[in-house]
Write a structure and sequence with these properties.
The complex is a heterodimer of chains A (430) and B (243). Chain A has 18 helices and six strands. Chain A is α/β, with parallel strands linked by helices and 430 residues long. Chain A has two domains: 3-39 and 194-419, no CATH class; 48-175, abc type-2 transporter like domain (abc type-2 transporter like fold). Chain A starts with a helix and ends in an 11-residue tail after the last helix. With 243 residues, chain B is α/β, with parallel strands linked by helices. Chain B has a domain at 6-87 and 158-242: 3-Layer(aba) Sandwich (Rossmann fold). In chain B, strands 6-7-8-3-9-10 form a six-stranded mixed β-sheet, with helices on both faces. A four-stranded antiparallel β-sheet of chain B has the order 2-1-4-5, with helices on one face. In chain B, strand 1 (6-17) and strand 2 (20-31) form a beta hairpin. In chain B, helix 3 packs across helix 4 (112-126). Chain B starts with 5 loop residues before the first strand and ends with a helix. Classes of the chains: A alpha/beta (430), B alpha/beta (243). The interface between A and B is medium-sized, with 22 and 34 residues.
């Protein structure tokens, strides 16, 4: 009979409760639902827009302008053909009735004023019928309409006055040729495109790291606190199995369930974020630049990152084991998890809003002393090919883990497992 | 009944919690097939003594010999041959009763046949019938205690350590628990129990030790002690010994 497997099986079964399965399924469904709604809203926002135009001028210039708008991804529909009389109020009433979102009114003297280089106002009416994402993005479309009109008009004027010059060369005489350099590699491309692309691909990493470390740590903390609360720990400690195996089974059980749960949670979150970003991928040209600069995870990089994450999880599990011993019950275990949450949140926020390399030396050392900082650091440094700091992090986490495991094994092997406790709530006195 | 062979020998046991001395040189002996009881008020040192013998706590001083082996050096052997029922023990609430018994039996059984034997015996001891298929979380206090007692006795341990076995139970459940203990120790298991219920001790034990403030004050059978102190029951004996 394998005693260790028996214990590990029990630990996993204790953690995989109906509530956990339900909450995971619920989270998955919720994220998928939210993702698909956001996706459809985003789709609505970026699809070709119908622009209803009331052309009161009907000059050759206005007609040419409208046909040019059609080329700029706008579907122009003339209200003149849809209403009984060419009148602005009638057009707006019609738009209200037909739930039309945008109406552009080209005034009567548009052609003649434009030919005299006189400024002229084009009226644009936008109907707000909701506050969804697509409504918001839709308002940006109006700006695009005006820009497209202005571009066309100015190009037309330049061509008429200086037919031998390309209007584009006149408007933007200085062209840029951008290069990005990473270490000894150079590639032609836009820095912001590269940074945006790297950001969109790695934005999930800190979130994944934070969730996995916190999830697994909370699991083992609760598992030990539950044994204490339900008064099962004393019995378990007297069965013929070594204390070391009890600690390892608890940590392994929590690790397995925690990683699977975090994985499911992240899958749901990813599908939600795919909806938010509309599942837009990286353009092939940017992808080529990233490849050329070596700013992607190689199998070696992935392996190092995996080791770094795994060690951070182990450190979290070992620390939680000690905290779990100090807790008297599930309630106090929640308070006990606070220092752990802080230790994970600090590198999480720093990785989101700052770069550890730009911090002052004392702060940097403080951050690096937190074992959970290292996978956050590794996720960036591996991309830049700075492996030394990743190796140092791995070695440091290994030392911390060994120290923590020795401490927790010692606690389990001595009276402290039963006598060590910290109370956060004072006992009521009568 | 004559008990010749010694199962447990406790000599001059001391335990310090920081500066507080919980046990001040406790000595006693439990013989094979005997029910030996430690009686005394709350805080007398009963649970500390039982926890040390159950390998949960380490003694500050003294010697404990279990079936001829030193408890400190052979703790694995001790754990294989004793079972401990703590006063406020619980079982895993999400497990079904039968699964809990199987989980615990797996630590002691050498093979499947022995595991089945343990489970069969546990079913007879706890008398919970079909309720064993239900989750432990749905059990009453009395049912949980019976389940835990079955867990403690199913492996026929050389020594069963029972800390306040009927604590917090109603009269009927307490009576049933006492009957179970009496019935199943006949098969050779020695029992070391603690209680502050003197009537329970008189009913269950072959010999008793009176413990107070970390010291054993008297040891003997109930009859011997009553005669020695000219008392009607153990409660009176205890009062006279303490005074």
């Amino acid at each position: 009979m394998n005693k260790f497997l028996n214990l590990l099986n029990k630990e996993i079964r204790e953690l995989v409760t109906f509530q956990l399965i339900f909450s995971l399924i619920f989270t998955l469904i919720l994220f998928n639902f939210m993702g698909s709604i956001t996706k459809s809203e985003m789709k609505k926002a970026i699809e070709t827009k119908d622009i209803y135009v009331l052309d009161l001028d009907k000059s050759s210039i206005s007609k040419e302008l409208l046909s040019n708008l059609s080329l700029a991804n706008f579907k122009v529909k003339l209200l003149n053909d849809l209403i009984s009389k060419e009148d602005k109020d009638i057009a707006l009433d019609f738009a209200k009735k037909e739930k039309i979102n945008f109406v552009v009114v080209i005034p009567k003297d548009f052609g003649s004023m434009v030919s005299k280089f006189q400024p002229i106002e084009v009226e644009i009416y936008s109907f707000i019928r909701g506050f969804s994402l697509s409504s918001n993005v839709g308002s940006a479309v109006l700006e695009q309409v005006i820009n497209a009109m202005n571009r066309y008009m100015s190009d037309m004027f330049i061509k008429s006055k200086l037919p031998e010059i390309d209007p584009e060369n006149l408007k933007n005489p200085i062209k840029k040729k951008e290069f990005v350099i990473v270490k000894d590699k150079i590639a032609e491309g836009s820095t912001s495109d590269v940074l945006n692309s790297i950001y969109s691909q790695t934005v999930f990493i800190p979130i994944i790291l934070m969730i996995i470390i916190m999830y697994t740590s909370q699991m083992v903390l609760s598992a030990i606190a539950m044994e204490k609360q339900d008064k099962t720990l004393e019995t378990l400690l007297t069965v013929p199995i070594s204390r070391r195996q009890i600690v390892i089974a608890k940590m392994m059980g929590a690790g397995i369930v925690g990683i699977i749960s975090a994985g499911i949670y992240m899958y749901g979150y990813r599908s939600f974020m795919d909806g938010v970003t509309g599942g837009i991928g990286v353009s092939s040209s940017t992808s080529d630049i990233i490849q050329k600069l070596g700013l992607n995870f190689t199998p070696y990089g992935y392996t190092l990152f995996g080791i770094s994450l795994f060690l951070a999880i182990l450190c979290g599990l070992a620390l939680s084991t000690i905290l779990g011993v100090l807790a008297e019950d599930l309630k106090s275990a929640q308070s006990m998890s606070l220092p752990l949450i802080f230790l994970v949140m600090i590198p999480y926020f720093i990785s989101l809003f700052s770069d550890i390399n730009t911090l002052s030396l004392p702060v940097r050392l403080l951050i690096m002393a937190i074992p959970f900082s290292h996978p956050f650091i590794a996720s960036r440094e591996i991309l830049l090919g700075n492996y030394n700091i990743v190796f140092i992090g791995i070695l440091y986490m290994l030392i911390v883990f060994v120290a923590l495991i020795i401490i927790s094994a010692r606690i389990f092997a001595t009276d402290r497992i039963l006598t060590m406790k910290i109370r956060f709530v004072r006992k009521k006195t009568i | 009944m004559n008990f010749l062979e010694s199962v447990l020998q406790v000599e001059n046991l001391r335990k310090l919690y920081g500066k507080f001395e919980a046990l001040k040189g406790v000595s006693f002996e439990v013989k094979k097939g005997e029910v030996f009881a430690l009686i005394g008020p709350n805080g007398a040192g009963k649970t500390t003594t039982l926890r040390i013998i159950a390998t949960l706590l380490t003694p500050s001083d003294g010697k404990i010999t279990f079936v001829g082996k030193d408890l400190r050096k052979e703790s694995d052997f001790v754990r294989e041959n004793i079972s401990y029922l703590p006063e406020e023990a619980g079982a895993y609430k999400n497990m079904r009763g039968i699964d809990y018994l199987r989980f615990m039996a797996t630590f002691y059984a050498k093979d499947q046949r022995e595991l089945d034997e343990f489970l069969e015996r546990a079913k007879q001891i706890c008398r919970l019938g079909d309720r064993l298929k239900d989750k432990v979380g749905t059990y009453s206090k009395g049912m949980t205690r019976k389940l835990l007692l079955a867990r403690a006795l199913m492996t026929k341990p050389a020594l069963a350590i029972l800390d306040e076995p009927t604590s917090g139970l109603d009269v009927i459940n307490a009576l049933e628990i006492r009957e179970i203990i009496r019935e199943y120790v006949k098969e050779g298991t020695s029992v070391l129990l603690s209680s502050h219920n003197m009537l329970e001790i008189e009913f269950l034990s072959d010999r008793v030790a009176l413990i107070n403030q970390g010291k054993i004050l008297e040891t003997g059978t109930s009859e011997e002690l009553k005669e020695r102190y000219n008392a009607k029951n153990l409660e009176e004996v205890f009062r006279r010994v303490v005074q």
